[in-house]
Every structure is written in structure tokens, then in C-alpha cells.
Amino acid sequence: MPVHKGPTFDGRDVYIDYPFEEVMFRWEHQARKIYVCFYGERESSEPVPHDNRLFNDALRYGDEIDRLQYERIARGGK
């Protein structure tokens, strides 16, 4: 189900899982930055641009998850 940006991205951090590519994204709403985390790896220290193709695919085809799910998958859990 697509993740709609709008008010959701303005009001809180958002975590997106895109299992097809085994990648997740974290939107940090106060800094307005996007971070990427491939399954089983550490989150990027540098933000990715808003027009990043993989991020936009994740918005269309991925699912919103919560922070705990994000952290679990990043550690290698499912």
C-alpha cells in the first residue's frame, strides 16, 4: 500500500519497508531528511536526496512500519 507523504511527513518520523529490494527508509520529520538502511546493515550516516529512485519506489510499493520493526529488520530479523 502506498505511503502518502503530505501531513504524515510533516507531523512525525516515518519508517518505510520495501521488502522487494530488502531496504528501508527513515524520514526524520524535524530535519526533513531521509536515511536508508539495507536489511542487516547499519543505517546510512548521510541522507539520501528526496528524488532518490529507490526511496520513491518504496513510497509507492512499500509499507509503513514502526520504529521497532525498523530496528529489528536492520539487525537481521524479519
Describe this structure in words.
This protein has a 4-stranded antiparallel sheet with strand order 3-2-1-4. The protein is built from 3 helices and 4 strands, in the order αβββαβα. The protein is an alpha+beta fold. Helices cover 29% and strands 26% of the residues. It has one domain (6-74).
Show the helix and strand layout.
Blueprint (H helix, E strand, L loop, with lengths): L5 H6 L2 E5 L4 E6 L4 E6 L14 H9 L1 E3 L1 H8 L4
Antiparallel strand pairs: 1-2, 1-4, 2-3
* Largest beta-sheet characterization: 4 strands, antiparallel
Low-confidence stretches: none
| Tally of individual helices | 3
Q: Which structural class matches the secondary elements?
A: alpha+beta
How far apart the termini lie comes to: 19 Å
Helix proportion? 25-40%
Q: What sort of overall outline do the alpha carbons produce when their principal axes are compared? A: globular
List the secondary-structure elements in sequence, H or E. Answer: HEEEHEH
Tally of distinct domains: 1
Write down the overall mean pLDDT.
Answer: 91
The proportion of strand residues reads 25-35%
Compute the gyration radius: what is it? 11 Å
Strand order of the largest sheet: 3-2-1-4
Extended strand count: 4
InterPro entries: Tis1_ImmP
Put the structure in a nutshell.
The chain is α+β, with helices and mostly antiparallel strands and 78 residues long.
Protein traits:
globular, 3 helices, 78 residues, 26% strand, alpha+beta, 4 strands
